[in-house]
């Protein structure tokens, strides 16, 4: 039986240091980007955290929201009224509960490419310079929903475990393995060697219709997506095996990257 939560009345209480001044980022002051604890907001996302491989450090929330969680024994739980909670985190939290967790290292690239069954079909999303945390979170949520097995990130991508990424993904990013592809775009050859068809999304008129890429003929497919606005660089498009576009009505030149990702994931299932 878990211990009842401890009441916090002092916003400077060191026991809730993981959650302090979150508007400044996803890490306590003085720590480097991508090195602080993972911060998860809202009951559904915290519930997903509790079933994920990430070790939970602490949970903080208003009493009603904490009661909705089935916290395992040994997880420190703290409750505070909404005013103290707001002072701790630096803004008004409508979701009412947060959790912190230890980071896990990125997946081994070769293991991610192969998967647990080397003969099974695989789908990956490969992101170039996608530095908007909310777009990354939305892509991660669609990836989990639509059968994508992992993310590959070039060196300029945002941190997929940044607080806003986790929030927009509704915690689903915690179930999605990711790895870095530091040699970009030359590292795409590692995907080709592993049997992947790399498909670069672009609105260019000379690209093939995405519907022409038959997922049954290519059981291993990796979809390349670029940042909102500039899209994929010419170098990345040249390195991919196929350049594909999503057909759209006249007068609309492109979709937002998160919407385009969802369409591509569904088309290539």
UniProtKB/TrEMBL annotation:
Start and end residues of each stretch annotated as Disordered: 1-36
Organism field: Geodermatophilus obscurus (strain ATCC 25078 / DSM 43160 / JCM 3152 / CCUG 61914 / KCC A-0152 / KCTC 9177 / NBRC 13315 / NRRL B-3577 / G-20)
Signal peptide: none
Record InterPro entries: Alpha/beta_knot_MTases, Ribosomal_eL30-like_sf, rRNA_Methyltransferase, SpoU_MeTrfase, tRNA_m1G_MTases_N
Compositional bias ranges of the Basic and acidic residues kind: 12-30
Protein name: tRNA/rRNA methyltransferase (SpoU)
Domain tRNA/rRNA methyltransferase SpoU type: 125-265
Gene Ontology biological process terms from the UniProt entry: methylation; RNA processing
Keywords per UniProt: Methyltransferase, Transferase
Molecular functions per Gene Ontology: RNA binding; RNA methyltransferase activity
